[in-house]
Amino acid sequence: MRADSLRTASGLMLALDVEDSVDAERIVGSYREFIDAVKLGTTLLVNPSGGIELISKIKHFGLPVLVDAKLKDVQHVLLSTARSYRAYGATAVTCWADIGREALKFCIDSLRNEIELVVLTALTSLPYEEIEQLAKEHIITAVECGCQCIQIPGNYPDLILWARGRIPSNVLIVSCGIGRQGGRVGDAIKCGADYEIIGRHILDSADMLQAFKDSSKIIRENLGYRTYVN
């Protein structure tokens, strides 16, 4: 396991949904004790006020960095893009499950010793009845292809509970959709997720310090109490 693997921790993954790298570094530096990993979106990385170098800057705080690139392309493009992010220090990068079983397995195998792939299974913005069946298919397909980390919407904790009861315990679950999109802090962790991705729920709070404290406390307490049995 690499020293910067997502497996080195679990808990609160901060979605750095801010406008520039100065704010990003200030927030991580000020609240480092409450943060277990960081998610960077491509909007910030390509923004003139942000920049791809932000990946390595955040890594200096000793945190794993997930680049939410949402890759969905032919194999050689996906591989070269993922490796480019790794060259700038990224710990992991997201890609969609529906690139095809053969392509997904090839990419997972090819990048296994270079950068971690977090496979996206569903959008948090869609109603549960629209995503349930396809999300379950994506979860099983990703695991059968050798995926070691999947992303499941945290605003649908029952889906996490379903997955955790059917996939190996060593497969990490990262959950988005916490806060503004309806997921309650701590519920995804309690159902078996390893990380809860939280952004605006904390960053837009009138008291950011208190929001960090409250979210971190709930998540860390729930890491010790899981409702699933694997």
Summarize the structure.
This protein has 230 residues and is an alpha/beta fold.
Describe the protein.
Strand 7 (172-176), helix 8 and strand 8 (195-198) form a beta-alpha-beta unit. With 230 residues, the chain is of the alpha/beta class. Helix 4 runs parallel beside helix 5. The mean pLDDT is 93. The chain has helices at 21-30, 42-46, 54-59, 75-87, 101-111, 128-144, 157-164, 187-190, 200-203, 208-222, and strands spanning 11-15, 37-41, 65-71, 92-96, 116-120, 149-153, 172-176, 195-198. The protein contains ten helices and eight strands. The protein has a single domain (6-222), classed as Aldolase class I (TIM Barrel, Alpha-Beta Barrel). The chain is globular. Helices cover 40% and strands 18% of the residues. The longest helix has 17 residues, at 128-144. Strands 1-2-3-4-5-6-7-8 form an eight-stranded parallel barrel, surrounded by four helices.
Relevant terms:
alpha/beta
Q: Which helices and strands occur, and which strands form pairs?
A:
Elements: E1 11-15, H1 21-30, E2 37-41, H2 42-46, H3 54-59, E3 65-71, H4 75-87, E4 92-96, H5 101-111, E5 116-120, H6 128-144, E6 149-153, H7 157-164, E7 172-176, H8 187-190, E8 195-198, H9 200-203, H10 208-222
Parallel strand pairs: 1-2, 1-8, 2-3, 3-4, 4-5, 5-6, 6-7, 7-8
Helix pairs in contact: 4-5
